[in-house]
Amino acid sequence: MAAATATDGELVRQSRAGEPAAYEHLARRWAARVLAVCHARVGRAGGRAAAEDLAQESLLRGLRSLPTLADPEKFGPWLVGIAVRTCLDWLKSAQRTEVSLDDVVIADARADENARDATDRRERAEQLMREVERLPHTYREVLMLYYYQDCTYQDLADLLGVSPATINARLTKARAMLRSRMMAEQDLRD
Asked: Which of 61, 117, 147, 187 is the most buried (most CB within 10 A)?
């Protein structure tokens, strides 16, 4: 069976049987969602580099823990749970006080920008990210997964263990909160 059409459960069983390519397919299939979860969990506290490192760590932990997975068909939610715990471990550790070289380079590049419209766009994007980070976790998580992964409400419902209606409600509430906060910020500037 081709890996692209194989279910998660089939790939888990192949991986457990000693086929390393099977886990590679699982990792590719779930990497974007794991990354989105890591971004949602660590936000600006860690930056992009930290979220990417945590996503890689989550995938590695998933590989190491694969024998403990009780239901191979539930690989995705199980891996997302590992990503959440990996991020929580990191947030509790001293690592989050480190500043990555990427963050320094990005900061230097931003300091060099002098075009007014580029500055306005950057400020607006930064404000939006600050407001996203201020959202309660359930809203922030579904928002990040929806826009990073571009998956359906049903996909998100399966991943998070809730109904599609709950996903819709959370996205609607998150967007309304962001719109309200961004408009209030704009009013303060004007």
From this structure: 61
